[in-house]
Amino acid sequence: MRALLVGLFASCLVTQAAAAAMQGESSQAPAQAKVEQRALTLDERLERKVAALRKHRGTIRFYENDRSLLGSNEQRTQARSSLTFARERVRQLTRTVAALRAKVRARTARRLAKLPPRAAICTVFGPYCEEALSVAWCESRFRTTAQNGQYLGLFQMGSYERQLFGHGQNARDQAVAAHRYFVRSGRDWSPWSCRWAAY
Predict the structure, then answer these.
(1) Tens of pLDDT along 90-148?
(2) Is 128 in contact with 192 (CB distance < 8 Å)?
(3) Residue 148: beta bridge partners?
(4) Torsion of CA 37, 51, 76, 92, to 10 degrees
(5) Could you tell me the residue ranges of all domains in the chain?
(6) Where do the H-state alpha helices sit in the chain?
(7) Which of 84, 85, 79 has the alpha carbon at shortest distance from 66?
(8) Which of the following CATH numbers is that of domain 117-198: 1.10.287, 1.10.530, 2.40.160, 3.30.70?
(9) Each residue's pLDDT expressed in tens, for the chain with a length of 199 residues
(10) DSSP 3-state assignment of 115?
(11) pTM score, two decimals?
(12) 8-state DSSP, 197
């Protein structure tokens, strides 16, 4: 009899231990899932919000193109509720998408501002990259801080030209300003004293 009681007691302990272990595992599982789930990137968040915005705009178009649903006694309440909800979500999502796009633009601007001179020049000038590199090397040896009297930067633009076409501290901004000047002058490098280097 004693052996039977000991066996039952041991069986209860094992069962309780197993149940406690299972509870511990189940309570840890959601926590682990949360840890393993990575945060969405800025681009992914923007993509999801744009997709949701399209969906709700589609809902609005659907009800506006089929006005009979809004007038039908059977479906009027549900249709109007869905349309109101979609319009509110479009208002909210439009603001959210605009804010996320502004963040993407700011991030892109920061990346571009860090480009070294050669990369910045080629990014801006595209098919004229080699010509622009030759002119910039001749003008400034690729130094954004180069100065010769009133002439500054990679492309040694004068004060009047900087007022017209812009300037900046980084290579990207200086290349953009020089490209504006280059395009305005007919893409022939004639305004630069180092124009010969392009050909």
Answers:
(1) 999 999 999 999 999 999 989 989 999 999 999 999 999 999 999 999 999 999 999 99
(2) no
(3) 151
(4) 80
(5) 40-113, 117-198
(6) 2-36, 42-65, 68-71, 76-113, 117-125, 129-140, 159-165, 171-184
(7) 79
(8) 1.10.530
(9) 444 333 333 344 334 444 444 455 455 555 555 556 789 999 999 999 999 999 999 989 988 887 666 666 667 778 788 889 999 999 999 999 999 999 999 999 899 899 999 999 999 999 999 999 999 999 999 999 999 999 999 999 999 999 999 999 999 999 999 999 999 999 999 999 999 998 8
(10) coil
(11) 0.61
(12) G
What distance in Å separates the CA atoms of residue 174 and residue 156, rounded to the nearest whole number? 9
- Residue bearing tokens 């040694």: 156
Burial of 149 (0-12, 13-18, 19+ CB in 10 A): exposed
Residue 87's alpha-carbon distances to 55, 82, 94, 110, in angstroms, are: 11, 9, 10, 35
Closest CA to 92 of 35, 123, 60, 52: 52
Question: How does DSSP classify residue 32?
Answer: H
Q: Token match 């490098």: residue?
A: 189
